[in-house]
Amino acid sequence: MTAVMDLATAPLKVTTPAQVHAAHHRIHALAKQVVGPVTGYDVALMACEAMSNAVVHGRGPVIVTVSCAETGLRVEVHDEGPALKVAGRVDHGQGLKLIAELAARWDLTVGETGTVLWFEVDREVAS
Known about the structure:
By secondary structure, the protein is of the alpha+beta class. About 40% of the residues lie in helices and about 25% in strands.
C-alpha cells in the first residue's frame, strides 16, 4: 500500500504493556479517520492483540508501522525473535483468530530476523 495521506504515524516502538495501551489509542484515532469508525475500532483491537502478542511472545523492541492508502490501511508489527510459548496458559491463542476474522488480508512470518505480523483492512463503504 502506498502512503497517500499525512495521517500515517511514524513507526512506534513498544516494549511494555503501557506502551501497547498508548499505541492502541494513537492507532485507533488514525484508523477512525482513514477507514471509518467501525472498521477503525476493529483495527485498534487487532493492533492491540498483535502488539501484546509481540511483547509477550517476542524478543527485543516491537516496532509498529501504519500505512494509509486510498483503499484502506495496513498495520505491521515486527519483533526480533521467534514466537515464544508461555507454559501453562490456556487463555492464549485467540488474537490470531480474531485478526483472521476481522482483517481483509493478513499474514505472519517467522524468520531469522524476527517475526512480522501484518494485516490490512479496507475503507468502510457508505450505504
